[in-house]
Amino acid sequence: xxxxxxxxxxxxxxxxxxxxLEEGHDVIVIDDFSNSHPEAVRRVEELSGRxxxxxxxxxxxxxxxxxxxxxxxxxxxxxxAGLKSIGESVSRPSSYxxxxxxxxxxxLDIMAIKDVRRFVFSSSATVYGxxxxxxxxxxxxxxxGLTNPYGWSKWMNExxxxxxxxxxxxxxxxxxxxxxxxxxxxSGQIGESPSGTPxxxxxxxxxxxxxxxxxVSVFGDSxxxxxxxxxxxxxxxxDLAEGHLAALAHLSPGVTVYNLGTGVxxxxxxxxxxxxxxxxxxxxxxxxxxxxGDVSSAIADPAKANSELGWRATRSLADSCRDSWLxxxxxxxxxTGQG
Length: 339
Ligand code: UFG
Known about the structure:
By secondary structure, this protein is an alpha/beta fold. 39% of the residues lie in helices and 19% in strands. Strands 3-2-1-4-5-7-12 form a seven-stranded parallel sheet, sandwiched between helices. Strands 6-15-10-13 form a four-stranded mixed sheet.
């Protein structure tokens, strides 16, 4: 296959690119590098030993992206391009909606013009809003209790994609709802490179382990969970990347939704303890107030992806912490200042 990866230089995209290239697929990355670095693409080429076609372009700009993709051949799209900070989405809602919605409309229009039919969308467990139970399957209602524009933009994108597929029934779509992607490529060469203060738990913990930050703030310890801290389904980024490959291989006309998660939950304190064990570093923390909008537990029921895609997450939280630490310790500044 010739796969166009929108946002392909980012944390998730770069890992998917390696997996696709290693499986013999060709990869075209389109990215505006607003929250990623060209060095990631160079490292993907180095790790896989294969070239990547790189297109520097903002997908939210229809004229520019139509021109940039006019002569590029691809038969499948994995659409990852978008903004992803929940907090920032609350303070800059119009940028979030403009970027996340317009980029999706544009790539779907470009696909129609080029008669490309295979589409995998990077959605999120965030669409489940405030879940009814800790373990969530794909039939759980979406949109209830959503509290931020980032989450709404994922929810809206799912609806837009369904409507476009309805109008173009030959489209083959997979909506992948990610739980909490963590970890890094086992080489430590690519990983999550947050700009500024990390919003998510594992990159924050990694920076505390490295001594870049003083201590982790544990957002609340009075949740209805075994140790009182929030429980999440942390999925190793390589498992997540392999999930995309499986989704691509099983596309058929229509829209299918899959949870990508492990089915196992871990608390904030468990993650801190495991990271400390894997890094051999002390990780100071202090319990602070709960973060607005957080739910106590969110764990995937991944049975549908397991049975229909023949895919399952195989890596443990220990693997994630080990690989995240390797990435962090080899790249203390992320990819900033590289290449
Ligand atoms: N947490 C802390 N301290 C921190 C950061 C997080 O205690 O400094 C806690 C949170 O309260 C939560 C857990 O760690 O209990 C995980 O928080 P993250 O911010 O890492 O992840 P979230 O579950 O809040 O959100 C992630 C992605 C979203 C996605 C969602 C889907 O960031 O994009 O998973 O479940 F929508």
